[in-house]
Design brief:
The chain is of the alpha/beta class. It contains ten helices and seven strands. Strand 1, helix 2 and strand 2 form a beta-alpha-beta unit.
Length: 293
């Protein structure tokens, strides 16, 4: 009986994507109720050269289908150039109001005194942490809502000018939606620019234990994939590379950034993970794909 169901699912998938006369693919019909669709999202493109390279590798050699770009970050221009070379990669504007790393900083695109510290950078945390120096929490700085809206609007417009294929919005560290007032701004911009947040009905799942090594990440992701039930799922992580640039990045409580994010890249490109996706018949889709449905 199970084999029959798998064969039926395969036939439906082949019919949905069979070519039309002339070689054009047929329009995708509604997903069968029994299908598992998965968005693998790579965050923080633009934050470093290593993050940029890892996100592209995780797309070209792995399972990533959507990437989130930080417009105010230093390596945004390179990110935009790389995305122009990889037009099949779906892009989200990663709305950014924090700058978390000790030795690598970015600040607002606009003049926004209430959003920045004395040095002109975004605050490191969404809310003040006890293990961080005082005066480092975004919410405690009492950001002005008009400055927030102007800044987020500038980030969206920069991404739309420089990158083709922007399909959605996402939020860095949860800061831009941390209060009802902030969320209302993001929802207003989402509606105005026709750039949704998560697709309706999507469920998030997390597959990596905190500070797991690369091999453990691979095993954990395979286990998570094996347990997915039918529906639309989103998996969010941060690809990186264990190189000197990323080894210099970190903050209190998270110093092994390079090794940790190299493990993400390994998991996203691993044969074991790709085999698990094929074995279960999981459909890799992008935000754009899901939103079109």
């Amino acid at each position: 009986m199970k084999a029959t169901h798998r064969w039926a699912g395969l036939c439906l998938a082949l019919l949905a994507f069979s070519p039309l006369p002339g070689g054009e693919p047929a329009p995708a019909g509604p997903a069968p109720e029994a299908s598992i669709r998965l968005i693998v999202r790579a965050d923080d493109m633009g934050s470093s050269h290593a993050a940029n390279a890892a996100c592209i590798r995780a797309f070209k050699e792995g399972i990533v289908r959507s990437v989130e770009v930080m417009a105010p970050a230093a390596w945004f221009p390179e990110a935009a150039a790389l995305l122009a070379e990889n037009p099949g990669l779906d892009v989200g504007v990663h709305l950014t109001l924090t700058s978390e790393w000790d030795a690598c900083k970015w600040g607002p695109l606009t003049r926004a005194p209430s959003l920045s510290d004395a040095d002109g950078y975004f605050f490191p945390t969404t809310s003040q942490r006890s293990d961080f120096p005082p005066g480092t929490g975004f919410l405690q700085a009492k950001p002005k809502l008009d400055e927030v809206e102007r800044e987020l609007r500038a980030q969206i417009e920069l991404c739309r000018r420089k990158i083709r294929g922007v399909s959605h919005l996402s939020v860095h560290m949860g800061t831009a939606t941390a209060t009802p007032e902030l969320r209302a701004i993001v929802e207003k911009l989402s509606s105005e620019y026709k750039l949704p947040l998560d697709p309706a009905g999507a469920r998030h799942f997390s597959g990596f234990p905190w500070k797991a090594g690369a091999d453990e990440k691979v095993r954990a992701l395979v286990k998570g994939l094996e347990g997915l039930q039918p529906g639309l799922w989103i998996f969010v992580e941060h690809p990186g590379m264990d190189v000197p640039e990323m080894r210099a990045m970190g903050h209190e409580g998270y110093r092994d950034v390079a090794a940790d994010r190299e493990g993400v890249t390994r998991a996203f490109t691993s044969k074991e993970v790709k085999d698990a996706i094929e074995r279960r018949g999981i459909q890799l889709v992008s935000y754009g794909d899901a939103l079109k449905r």
